[in-house]
Amino acid sequence: MRKHWKLITALGAVILVIAVAVVLLNPPTPAAKPDDPSSLQASGKFGFPVSGIKIGEGGTKTASDGKSITGYNGSCDSAAQAAANYAHLLRDVNVTTWTQQKKTLKELSETGPWFATATLAGDTLAGLKEQPPGTFEGGWVQRSDVTAGGMYRLASCEAKKKAVVQVFTGSLDGRTDSVPLASFGTVTMQLGWDGDWKITDAMPKADDPYFGGRVKDAGPGGQDPKGPTGAVPILDESLVNWVFRDKSKEGWVEYANAKR
Amino acid sequence: MQTLSASRALSLVAALLALFLGFGVVFAGPAEAAEAAEAADEVNTTEKLNADQLKRLAGLPEAQRNGIRDRLNLEHGKKACSNLVFYGTMGGSNCENTAAKAFGAFLTTPEQSLDYDGTQTRFCSGLSSTGAPAAAVSYCVASALWEKYAPIAGAVMRTTISAMPGGQVVLGTVDTVAFIANAKDGFEKFANTVKAEGVKSTNEVLNNLLKVSVFEIDDGFRATWAVFAGIGILVMGLVYFKLWKDVSNEEIDMDSARTSLLWYGPLSMVLVLFGPPIGYVINGWMSGLTEGITFWTSSRVTDFGVAISRFASYESSGAFGPLAAVLLFGLLFIAAWGMLGLLALQPLALYLLGLGIAIMVGFLIHPKYRERVGKVGALWLGISFSKPLLLLLMGAVFSYIASRPAFVGEGVDDGMVNATSVFLAAAAMCVLAFALPMLYKYVPILPSSSSSLGEGRQSIAGPAMVAGAGAAISSAIRQKRTAQVQSGTTGGSGRPNGGAPATNGTSSMTAHSEGQGSSGLGSNGPGISGRRSAASRVSHEQDSLSGQDRQGSQAQGRGQPETRTIGELQKADRAGTGGAKAAQALKAGAGAVGRGSVKVAAGGATAFLLAGREAARQASMRGQRSARSMAPDTDHISGR
Lengths: 260, 640
What we know:
The structure holds two protein chains of two kinds.
Chain A: H1 5-25, H2 28-32, E1 61-62, E2 69-70, H3 76-91, E3 93-94, H4 98-107, H5 113-127, E4 140-145, H6 146-149, E5 151-158, E6 162-173, E7 181-193, E8 197-202, E9 222-223, H7 237-243, E10 253-254
Antiparallel strand pairs in A: 1-2, 3-4, 4-6, 5-6, 5-10, 6-7, 7-8, 7-9
Chain B: H1 2-46, H2 51-59, H3 62-81, H4 84-89, H5 95-104, H6 110-115, H7 120-129, H8 134-142, H9 154-162, H10 167-171, H11 186-209, H12 219-248, H13 254-311, H14 322-360, H15 370-402, H16 415-435, H17 462-467, H18 471-487, H19 491-521, H20 526-559, H21 566-573, H22 578-630, H23 635-638
Helix pairs in contact in B: 2-13, 3-5, 5-7, 7-8, 11-13, 11-14, 11-19, 12-13, 12-14, 12-22, 13-15, 14-15, 14-16, 14-22, 15-16, 18-19, 18-20, 18-22, 19-20, 21-22
């Protein structure tokens, strides 16, 4: 037996190495799994699933502003599309076209207490006699860029009834002291079916980030860590980590035509 | 055949390991790189004040803290108002001030202002309480979506803070104003340099005082302890021989021999095993003590830091000219480094003393040498206690200085007052750096009669801590002394010469460095640089002279080797390398069993600390001999 000690040691070492290798190589597999929601296709660039639906599609008509798409079929996918196509109405502020935007928003929604909140910024800015410094490219104060964010989360959905959707969008915000600053944020809205998807509630207040318990969290968001650059950056790994820094990544799905 | 297959198996294992490691590197590489990149991003976006800076911020005077808070809140306000929509709802021009007030409503300390994470709700209620337009309040409340009120970046915060009074103290930076604007000649430039260096290094020292190297009993120490304790056990074996020899010579009675064997033998083994844990516990108490005092001291140090940062703006006026600046700021410079050196040496001294104890642990079993171990242990305790003590003293001294008129309020615009304040600060730091170690004279390493190195002398380990790095100098001094003893001259006449090389050495060193400094600067002023370099040349000569002197004395010492005893030879060897020391310990133990090994082992571990002691001892011996030479010789009466 003594003659074989080297062999036994060697065997032991091999077993040890294999054990260590198994332990070390395994974790990536289970870690990767929870990120894959069952039904959706291959993962996107940042590990989110990519759906087949596109921003700017899904409807058959346009609203009175000539660009907001309406006429959805009532499916849950169409709710996600409608949310993406309506998001700019809740985010954009352009002092020159504000009246038209407010009118469109009225057409595509059921007014409620949320409506005053959603139109507060536009009403205030458009109502000013003297324009503050910092508007850009013809009266823009805030300009959403939905494809720059390009993700949605269906908090709940019943086809042709009701859906709560969060849309992650980019935005370019005017600054009083510099070129516009890019930011990313989440527009949360509740859609109701009334022959077409209509906004029935939106804009959770600062003290109610969970939208009355209807969403998991307020969603990702954050200003461009590079500071004001005048353009919305293309999302990258570090930006995704930055906007999701204390938020859950669960449930978020990329639109097929998101800017990446 | 057996070996062959075994070696083949081994090489297989090696190949597998290499493969596996290769995979590991390949897989781990990108992941780590990504993580590192992320970490870097994190730092860039959220870089805030570190713990030390926060500590100093906490210690600032209330008025300056409020100033910093208000300034930060204004910065928050600015950030919020740069949002166009918010600016519009706030009604324009007064936006920043109103927003700053709103932030001030809930960010009441600078720390809170620094920590503000962009939580909107409190800001909104702050807005409504400061009378902001209703539209702004409802806009604020309206949306949790976008980070309109995002916290300001760390870099902006730092810039903001550095512009405030006391801010540079917090950040640990000092912008020194040139002492003499448009310095014309080399000396004026030198004065500028000395001032800048003095203030900067003092500032650095103050910033680092509370965090410089801590002595920790870690794995490294344990491993080293094990080695030294091994030697200690060998020494113990030798001491056993010595013990029995002394018993058989009837120098020790059986009772104490029995105590030694039954109590101290096992005890020393226990100490060998549990020395590090015991040290760890004691060290833990001391760190706790230091921590407790640090908090109190840090605010005092900050006060003093505020005072020092005021030095940065001093300019030449009246009698406070370039020469005074060089001398006073130079003193400040030396004191600052002395202090830092003291704090930095403390862990080293603890480390070496700890190892000394490990070697000496064997002495515990011999009744004659037992107390030496106790003394070293006491010295270890004393040194580990010195840090909290220093911090306490520092707090007291600094709070006194910071309350001087020159440092209170706006200060005094008087050259002399400012000059004296620099002197006061430098002197206080000198006191802290060089006086505290004097306390160690109450913790003598060895009883005066236990070695023939000198009788009735004072033992001062403190200077050793400061001057400890000069082990080489000490060996030179020792050589010199040995030579003097052998040359047969009486102490009184021989001593002044003994002191001479040391003084020569230091003075020439300072002169030398000054000369270097100015000749470097003096490239613009040729005449002065010539003078300076001449001075440095003189100092070179002095240097080489003193060197020759030393060499001469060494030669003298070597000239009469036949008069040197074994003990003296060993003494001369003390400053040798560690390995030599260990070998020496064994050799000497085998040779001259008791005393020689005691000295070598003790000396080996504490040679470093003894360096300064030697100098002090020389002085005291000189005094005693001269005193003795006047007193009647009574040795023959007492029968010694």
